[in-house]
C-alpha cells in the first residue's frame, strides 16, 4: 500500500467508511500502511466493463461517513470509482467481498472474506481507460512502472492543468525506477511547456535532476 505523497495536492471526494465492528480489523490495519494498493487487479469469473479478465481497485476507503450509494444497506463499500463499488457483504459470513458495477447491473462475489480478496489481488502494469477518472489516473501515476509512464505522461500533459502535470513530473523524477522515462518527459516539458510552469515548479523540476 502507498500513502499519498506530501508533495502533491490531495484528491477530493475519495470514499470513506465507518469503523463498523462487522468490518474485519485487518482492513483498518491495512489502512495504516497506506490507501493506494500496489497489487490492485482482481480476476473475475466473467468480463467486466474494465476488461475481459477482471477489474481494478484504486483507493481504499479511509475511516469516515458511509459513502452514499444506491446499494442495499448490507453492502458496505470500501472502494468506489464512479458507479463501480467494492463492498463488504455484511449479510454473509466473512464478510464476503462483492464487486458491483451499477451502470451495467453486474453483481459479483469475488472472495469469501477480506483475506482471500487481498490474496487474489495482482500487480499489473497500470493502463488508463479511454476516459480515466481522477482517481484512476492518480492511482496509476502513483504506482507507475517504466512501461506505463509514457501513456500517463501523455495524458497528464494533454488533460491536466500545466501545474498539476509538472507536479506529477517532479514526483516521477524522484522514483529511481522511472528515472530514464521521466527525464525524457522532462526534456519534452523543457521544450514545449516550461513557460506554463510557475517559477517554484521550475525550480523543483530542475532540483530533481
In short:
The chain is 33% helix and 17% strand. With 209 residues, it is an alpha+beta fold. A hairpin with a 6-residue loop joins strand 6 (84-89) and strand 7.
Task: Detail the topology: elements first, then pairings.
Layout: E1 16-17, H1 25-31, E2 41-43, E3 54-56, E4 62-63, E5 75-81, E6 84-89, E7 96-101, E8 106-111, H2 114-120, H3 134-142, H4 149-159, H5 162-173, H6 179-192, H7 199-207
Parallel strand pairs: 1-4
Antiparallel strand pairs: 2-3, 5-6, 6-7, 7-8
What can you tell me about this protein's structure?
- The chain is an alpha+beta fold and 209 residues long.
- Helix content is 33%, strand content 17%.
- The protein contains 7 helices and 8 strands; from the N terminus they run βαβββββββαααααα.
- It has helices spanning 25-31, 114-120, 134-142, 149-159, 162-173, 179-192, 199-207; strands at residues 16-17, 41-43, 54-56, 62-63, 75-81, 84-89, 96-101, 106-111.
- The strands form 3 sheets. It has a 4-stranded antiparallel beta sheet with strand order 5-6-7-8. The protein has a two-stranded parallel ribbon with strand order 1-4. Strands 2-3 form a two-stranded antiparallel sheet.
- Strand 6 (84-89) and strand 7 (96-101) form a beta hairpin.
- Helix 5 (162-173) runs parallel beside helix 7 (199-207).
- It starts with 15 loop residues before the first strand and ends with a helix.
Amino acid at each position: 500500500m502507498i500513502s499519498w505523497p506530501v508533495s502533491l495536492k490531495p484528491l477530493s471526494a475519495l470514499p470513506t467508511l465507518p469503523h463498523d465492528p462487522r468490518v474485519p480489523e485487518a482492513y483498518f490495519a491495512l489502512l495504516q500502511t497506506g490507501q493506494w494498493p500496489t497489487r490492485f487487479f482482481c480476476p473475475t469469473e466473467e468480463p467486466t466493463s474494465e476488461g475481459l479478465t477482471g477489474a481494478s481497485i484504486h483507493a481504499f476507503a479511509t475511516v469516515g461517513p458511509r459513502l452514499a450509494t444506491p446499494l442495499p444497506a448490507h453492502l458496505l463499500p470500501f472502494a468506489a470509482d464512479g458507479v463501480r463499488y467494492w463492498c463488504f457483504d455484511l449479510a454473509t459470513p466473512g464478510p464476503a467481498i462483492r464487486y458491483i458495477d451499477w451502470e451495467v447491473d453486474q453483481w459479483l462475489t469475488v472472495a469469501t472474506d477480506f483475506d482471500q480478496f487481498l490474496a487474489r489481488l495482482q500487480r499489473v502494469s497500470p493502463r488508463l481507460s479511454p476516459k480515466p477518472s481522477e482517481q484512476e489516473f492518480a492511482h496509476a501515476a502513483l504506482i507507475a512502472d517504466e512501461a506505463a509512464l509514457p501513456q500517463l505522461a501523455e495524458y497528464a500533459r494533454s488533460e491536466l492543468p500545466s501545474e498539476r502535470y509538472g507536479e506529477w513530473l517532479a514526483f516521477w523524477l524522484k522514483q529511481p525506477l522511472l528515472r530514464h522515462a521521466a527525464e525524457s518527459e522532462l526534456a519534452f516539458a523543457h521544450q514545449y511547456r516550461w513557460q506554463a510552469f510557475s517559477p517554484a515548479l521550475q525550480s523543483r523540476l530542475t532540483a530533481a535532476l
